[in-house]
Amino acid sequence: MKLYCLSGHPTLPCNVLKFKSTTIMLDCGLDMTSALHFLPLPLVHSPRLSKLPGWVSKDGTIALEKELKECAGRVFVDSLPEFCLPERELLDLSTIDVILISNYHCMMALPYITEHPGFTGTVYATEPTLQIGRLLMEELVNFMERVPKAQSATCWKNKEIQRLLPGPLKEAVDVWTWKRCYSLQEVNSALSKVQLVGYSQKVELFGAVQVTPLSSGYSLGSSNWIIQSHYEKVAYVSGSSLLTTHPQPMDQSSLKNSDVLILTGLTQIPTANPDGMLGEFCSNLAMTIRAGGNVLIPCYPSGVIYDLLECLYQFIDSANLGSTPFYFISPVANSSLEFSQIFAEWLCQNKQSKVYLPEPPFPHAELIQTNKLKHYPSIHGDFSAEFRQPCVVFTGHPSLRFGDAVHFVELWGKSSLNTIIFTEPDFSYLDALAPYQPLAMKCVYCPIDTRLNFHQVPKLLKEVQPLHVVCPEQYTQPPPTQVHRSDLMLELQLPPMPYRRCSVLGLPFRRRYERIQLLPELAKSLVPSEIKPGISVATVSAVLQSKDNKHVLQPAPKPAPAPPSKKRKRVVEESPEVRAPKPLLSGAVPLEPSLATLHKHGITEVKVEDTPDGHILHLQAEDTLIQLEEDGTHIVCDSNESLRITLRDLVLRFLQKL
Amino acid sequence: MPEIKVTPLGAGQDVGRSCILVSIGGKNIMLDCGMHMGYNDDRRFPDFSYITQNGRLTEFLDCVIISHFHLDHCGALPYMSEMVGYDGPIYMTHPTKAICPILLEDFRKITVDKKGETNFFTSQMIKDCMKKVVPLNLHQTVQVDDELEIKAYYAGHVLGAAMVQIKVGEESVVYTGDYNMTPDRHLGAAWIDKCRPDVLISESTYATTIRDSKRCRERDFLKKVHETVERGGKVLIPVFALGRAQELCILLETFWERMNLKAPIYFSTGLTEKANHYYKLFITWTNQKIRKTFVQRNMFEFKHIKAFDRSYADNPGPMVVFATPGMLHAGQSLQIFKKWAGNEKNMVIMPGYCVQGTVGHKVLSGQKKLEMEGRTTLEVKLQVEYMSFSAHADAKGIMQLIRMAEPRSVLLVHGEAKKMEFLKDKIEQEFSVSCFMPANGETATIATNPSVPVDISLNLLKREAALGGPLPDSKKPRTMHGTLIMKDNSLRLVSPEQALKELGLNEHQLRFTCRVQLQDPYSDADTLNRVYSHLKSVLKGYTIQHLPDGTVMVESIVLKVSSSAEDPNTKVVLLSWSYQDEELGSFLSSLLRKGLPSGLC
After folding, report:
1. What is the predicted pLDDT for the residue at A570?
2. Could you tell me if A534 lies within 8 Å of chain B, comparing CB atoms?
3. Which of B126, B281, B291, B471 should we substitute to test contact with A (largest number of A Cβ atoms within 10 Å)?
């Protein structure tokens, strides 16, 4: 059993597990942090961005003014943003049988894999994961396609040139493998390969392996996966949360007793407490509005935003924000808000019980009804007509490289009255803001990451008791910026097996058993005998049938009826029939009872001679010897076959057959 | 012999008060717990005293499963759990859990508040009963306990309707509840995988009907409604608040829109809006088309259909009214019917099945004079139309489901005996499986023949697979030999050697030695050669070796030749073999005793 690690990003994993002749991809995360090396894509022409100076190396030998622009001491690529894909050379992607998706953030690289020539696998995901994942992909494609960029920069990727570039561009790895965003057509084709599954649904793969999604408590429809046969169990834990937010709570008990637990997707901000961040978010928002400023929240169109809106729903009136307009701008804003209300089965208990009333589970329905929250597909169209300031805007993309957020940073960046609040933890806010410097706008960093932290993991593992833990290497050492914080790493009794991009791990498994079915006719024919108290054995002679990785034992066909004895004599010189092999024998043949039995058979002239290891019985009239020892019996009988058979059966009577 | 027992307490050769007991692998499960619309006395509920004479049911049942929210499937639930007494788990899907208590409360109100019955369940009892409900998701495998697991499949009959698979070990039962095999305007079609249950318990409401195309039925329906409205008549459509009502509302709404009609359409009771809200929140349970477009246009927001007020019934002019309940056995639909029955311009359209004993059933069977409560009679002059819109599978659909699931036997419930009889013959003929149709209180016993799961050591399996070659050869089946160790509750099949080792037993070697005298006037070496050639020619397919140390080995049996001390022409062949080679050893000794043929070199 092997694990191929195709992504080095701990929260956007992409691993491939080879398990009992099946090849299973676990998640398909897309590392978008590469986009931070690119210039933002403005929705409307930005004089500032277009006037940025081109970059020329200090000695003037390399001039890439067209491709690279400088802003506040950093160099950015002036081209459509590109993403860092999962490794595609480590193994043949066309051999992948299935892809298991844990949550909608971890499927963004799907089109790059499923649209790879030769891919014939199936993708398994829950319905919310599919629907919201689709929205995230559609939003991404829309952000990219509505601002076409003629130029495509490639020269800077040249190894010789990249070496000479200033950091952090210089340190970027594998830049030649970076790819542009996929098209809507590719998204549709990729998602058409998704097969929907529900929590605790047992999905059989080729009869060999069973996979089951379990609630992971992180987002709508998010799942951990159990991959198991009858004897081996791998738990894949990715993006799990023990906090009570809107999704169904995490199912921990089903993770118990796994041989290997693959642990990915822990919190990216282990030092921030989500509840505290939520409080800070609200107070900064209120402060800015009261001072007459605007608030920008760069965010994804689904996920934490539901919690933020719920929090604001309770907060608005007490903070006297009743008249402040809240805008949610995304090409999928409406869909996201609508979809959130129809997944009752996937929500926490108290949201579920609202649906029984029947009431919408999320209070943003009421915010929309009362006109406090308005949503628009983009800043163009209706929005520009209804736009009132000061206001609060939720919009994407959190990287600040594309989407409507770019426009608002440009628009509000010059005034210190305005505030940008970062809630998504995926991008460093300093890097996100780098191409907008100098910036007067206030920046508040309130990352909300509800995923497991380093204190919760040991407790969880103690509860579920896996034999081995596999995790990204980042979790086995303190963060590079805080090397003294040994509390920000996993400290487990049994050290975890670390992996990095391109690792291939052999997982410590010893498969010893397989499930087989005895057909009822066979089971009925078995004759068990008790060997020790509570332990019985039976000899099984049967025909094995294996089909679709399922094994069945059926009774051996009856031997053809024996030909009449006369005929047999004539053809006696044929090979003996191959019969079932004889069982192994165990036990010992005791002396006295043997003699008694011989006596019963009319063999009375027996001379017993003691030897160091047992006895020798001389059957004098028959000229036959029986040598009895503790672990062996030897019958020396020359001419009389029927006597030999009698003696054989007599001895067998004392022995156990296996 | 393991067996599965199925006993209907209701819905056995009947429609109404569905309640089926199943015993499987030592577990007892109650499937549905419904009421009978045709009765107002004790017969309205299933006879739970069948389970036990004295008291509570908790210890006799492992779980209760409700297939959908129709009262003939869940109407007796609070009575069973709170008045008879049951505290175990009750499983139903989310939409059923949401809607069921509302219909129960409605039922309670009609029975207690309007008819003034006492000794009926209370609102509190409904609430307490619903607290025992565990929601089920589609395709989720729910472990009721260590051995019993259940799984729900989409049934398409009403919002949240489910079929359930019940599994204990290798034995399983599928209960269909009510289902529909053709998608309609708001629901999808029932689906199940090839799960090969031992018993498929299927409804058979339309056992003998093969319905014409749905399009025709819809056109007929619209035509009749339209004609009546055109001539100024009133149309009453008795429905249950949830289910067919939404289907027909979508149908009329689109027709009114298209034809630009002005006659008002009303929906009785305040339930409508609430009901439609459920459909909006549980949109994932509707059909593909509605699910796909709900963000742009929600099909359950009606423009032409408005809430009904009791006073509207006397308004002049045409109108269409959807009124509850569906079988005209009580409530608003019956009140409106009484008002409109005398006018031949009006029409009542019964869109679904009516249970015997209900006014709906009497009207449909052509009765023109109805005896009402208080010894009054009602003359029926209005036109009566029956149009089957209930989302049940017809005969074709039932056969289709059987083909899908491939059960080992079929058991019919929820239908009329005569029709069942017909379908039973058809099923037995077409699928050659046995088909049962027990009456209420009658037990059908189905013998199962489960195979026994065993853990086989991988070594043994691999060795066997390697010997057997890549493909099984049906002509030369290989017999595998192993030892089954039964300890505690585990069954493990290992090689005999491994079994000895694991059980800490010593192996006992049983050997045989046999000296055979031959008259063979050659040297010892030549005789050995002659023995070798002889065996070579007789034993095909055996490993026979002539070893340099002056022995011949046949498989693992050693043969040696020596001359007799007295007579050099008498040779003694010494054979020695272990018990594992008994057959071959015995064969060889007998063969050699017959001497060597002369033609050997």
Report:
1. 42
2. yes
3. B281
What confidence tens digit (pLDDT) does each residue in A8-53 have? 999 999 999 999 889 999 999 999 999 999 999 998 888 999 899 9
**A208 interfaces chain B, CB cutoff of 8 Å:** no
Alpha helix positions (H), B177-329: 214-230, 244-259, 271-281, 288-293
Q: Does B569 touch chain A (CB under 8 A)?
A: no
Are the beta carbons of B141 and A200 separated by less than 8 Å?
yes
Distance between CA B529 and CA B512 in Å, rounded?
A: 23
Are B455 and A231 a contacting pair at CB < 8 A? Answer: yes
CA-based nearest residue in chain B for residue A335: B295
Does B466 reach chain A within 8 Å, measured CB to CB? no
Per the model's pLDDT, the better-predicted residue between A193 and A541 turns out to be A193
With an 8 Å Cβ cutoff, are A585 and B509 in contact?
yes
Domains and CATH numbers, chain B: 3-210+391-444 (3.60.15.10), 214-386 (3.40.50.10890), 452-468+479-508 (no CATH), 511-594 (3.30.530.50)
Closest alpha carbon within chain A to B292: A131
Q: Longest C-alpha distance within chain A, in Å? A: 123
Rounded CA gap, B306 and B302, in Å?
Answer: 8
Helix (H, G, I), strand (E, B) or coil at A87: coil
pLDDT tens, position by position, B51-72: 998 889 999 999 999 999 999 9
Q: Which residues contact A275 (CB under 8 A, 6 or more apart)?
A: none
Q: How far apart, in whole angstroms, are the C-alpha atoms of residue B389 and residue B158? A: 12
pLDDT for res A565: 44
Q: Assess B539–A contact: CB distance below 8 Å, yes or no.
A: yes
For B508, the closest of A535, A581, A586 (CB atoms) is: A586
The tokens 């001497």 sit on which residue? B595
Would you give the distance in Å from CA B320 to the centre of its chain? 40
Find chain A residues with C-beta within 8 A of B473's C-beta: none
Which one from B203, B218, B247, B385 is the annotated catalytic residue?
B203
Whether A120 shows a pLDDT value over 90: the answer reads yes
Mutating which of A582, A630, A635 best tests the B interface, going by the most B Cβ atoms within 10 A? Answer: A582
State the Cα–Cα distance between residues B514 and B535, nearest whole angstrom. Answer: 17
Poorest-pLDDT segment among A134-143, A335-344, A617-626, B231-240: A617-626
Which residue is closest to A342 within chain B, CA to CA? B281
**Residue A569 has what pLDDT?**
40
| DSSP per residue, B504-565 | TPPB-EEEEEEEEEEE--S-HHHHHHHHHHHHHHH-TTS-EEEETTTEEEETTEEEEEEE-S
Query: Which of A138, A170, A167 has the alpha carbon at shortest distance from A156?
Result: A170
SS3 B24: strand
Report the residue count for chain A: 658
Q: What is the DSSP string of A225-257?
A: EEEE-SS-EEEEEES---S-SSBPPP--GGGTT
- From chain B residues 403-462, the ones with a CB under 8 A of any chain A CB are 449-458, 461
Please give the Cα distance from B523 to B546 (Å, whole number): 16
Q: Say yes or no: A231 contacts chain B, CB-CB below 8 A.
A: yes
User: Does residue B203 have an active-site annotation?
Assistant: yes
Using 50, 70 and 90 to split pLDDT, how confident is the model at B83? very high
What ipTM was predicted for this assembly?
0.85
Write the pLDDT tens digit of every residue in B88-131: 999 999 999 999 998 899 888 878 877 778 889 999 999 999 99
> Mean pLDDT score of chain A, rounded to an integer?
90
Q: What is the CA radius of gyration of chain A?
A: 36
Does the beta carbon of B292 lie under 8 angstroms from any beta carbon of chain A? no
**Domains with residue ranges and CATH for chain A:** 2-43+53-267+451-506 (3.60.15.10), 274-445 (3.40.50.10890), 585-657 (3.30.310)
